[in-house]
Amino acid sequence: MKQPEPAASKPPILIVDDTADDLKTLEFILTHQGYSCVPVTDPRQAVAMARQHQPFLVISDLHMPEMSGLDLLKEFQQQCPGLMVMIVTGDGSLETAVTAMHMGALDYLRKPLAPKEVGIRVERALERHRLATEVHDLRGKLDSRKRTTTIVGQSQVIRHMLDSINLLAASDASVLIHGESGTGKELVAREVHEKSERMGKPFVAVDCVSLPDPLITSELFGHEKGAFTGATEDRIGLLEMAKGGTVFFDEITELGMDVQAKLLRVLQERQFRRVGGRKLIDLDVRILSATNRDPRKAVNENLLREDLYYRLNVIPVQVPPLRERRDDIPLLVDHFLHVLAERHHRPMKQVAPAAMELLQRHTWPGNVRELQNSVHRLFVMTTADTIDADAVRGTIEPETTAKEDNAALFGMPLKDAKLKLAKQFERQYIQQLLTAHQYAIGRAAEAAGVNRKTLARLAEEHGLLAKG
């Protein structure tokens, strides 16, 4: 005879019923079959409890005065998509139960509850949950192998960095990733996560630059209903969302000192509370962080707490700029072209040797991100099967080419030379501006003191914006 699994090996079940006796009966049946239960008498609190306890199944009564089972089903479908819901109905409500199944309910139970029937239907739901989890994990592993964001390169500096990643991935220590903008620091963080024992668990990237100051604490730690104006329901934060996985703080030096102090305390105690909450929540995540600043200099300039720096910098990783790995440019270009061809369902384009030489001679101040954007423009704007040197010259402006062009200026009339120089400067200015603002037209236009439409038009005239 099959022995029941201990409750600890099974994910919990959320049971919702406004009648205490019916709730106790169902809890008794499920507990004796090896399940752990989260009982809820107020259906209005069910979604918040589900977010907190992460059940694999909800079993809800159909008729409740505060909120009907059908309304609760709709709420779960909106707030917790994918969570299975089973309806409990009385003798005269079979038609409504069938309606619930048409609406997306997994199954239904009829009162009075028969323990054997409850066991069979819940076990069926558990098997379905396990199958869905296995499929999800397999897809995650396949996706990690087929990711278009793979670290590409065979240069010595990249091989050294990849060797370091392989070593540190086996650890659970904090990692501080340092590199210029556009070098691929988040890519490195994802690679660490994918090669660690936390692979398949959540990877949550926190953009410290874009987090709004008034909401940073709530975004990180979550909040309880009523904690502040506008907190109309319980909400889990990013740290809780990443349970079992990895949290990546991108541009950690952009966090305010008060938030850094709170984060330090959480990392020290490995526990935290939601804003307005009393319950301590265990921190079960690995912390990775990144900055484009010199970390020690950031400490000296009071942009990064020294105690937090030591807590984050257990293992440092340096991401090299593209100018220090020019041998990787052909591999990167080929990789980006393959991705674009597959995405746009178009034939793969080749790159002429002279064109590749120009790409390798460029200094790429925006690093891999700038190269990727340039390849995208070349792919879209080049109608031929092969990208030639002229196409590259129209997209980038290598220093050597600029010097050759400038030498030819002295053979031109002054008016023509001034016009050409002005055009060259305009193109270089816009290209550097877009790179600095990661091709966000609105922010770049604001920095340049022109309106968005003007900058977009000039960028298109110079072939700096590729559509599609």
How do the strands and helices of this protein lay out in sequence?
Elements: E1 13-16, H1 20-32, E2 37-40, H2 46-53, E3 57-61, H3 69-79, E4 84-89, H4 94-102, E5 107-110, H5 115-146, H6 156-169, E6 175-178, H7 185-194, E7 203-207, H8 216-221, H9 238-241, E8 246-250, H10 257-269, E9 271-272, E10 281-282, E11 286-291, H11 295-300, H12 306-312, E12 315-318, H13 329-344, E13 350-351, H14 353-361, H15 367-381, E14 386-387, H16 389-393, H17 399-409, H18 414-436, H19 441-448, H20 452-461
Parallel strand pairs: 1-2, 1-3, 3-4, 4-5, 6-11, 6-12, 7-8, 8-11, 13-14
Antiparallel strand pairs: 9-10
Helix pairs in contact: 6-7, 13-15, 19-20
What attributes does this structure have?
49% helix, single chain, alpha/beta, 468 residues, 12% strand
CATH architecture call of the largest domain: 3-Layer(aba) Sandwich
CATH superfamily annotation of the largest domain: P-loop containing nucleotide triphosphate hydrolases
Question: Rg, please?
Answer: 29 Å
Strand order of the largest sheet: 2-1-3-4-5
Indicate the CATH class of the largest domain.
Answer: Alpha Beta
What's the shape?
elongated
Query: Stretches where pLDDT falls below 50 for ≥5 residues?
Result: 141-149
- Structural class estimated from helices and strands: alpha/beta
- Round the mean pLDDT to the nearest integer and report it: 85
Main β-sheet: number of strands, strand sense, barrel status? 5 strands, parallel
Number of strands: 14
How many helical elements? 20
Instruction: Work out the strand percent.
Output: 5-15%
Q: What is the number of independent domains?
A: 3
What is the straight-line distance between the termini? 61 Å
Classify the fold: give the CATH topology of the largest domain: Rossmann fold
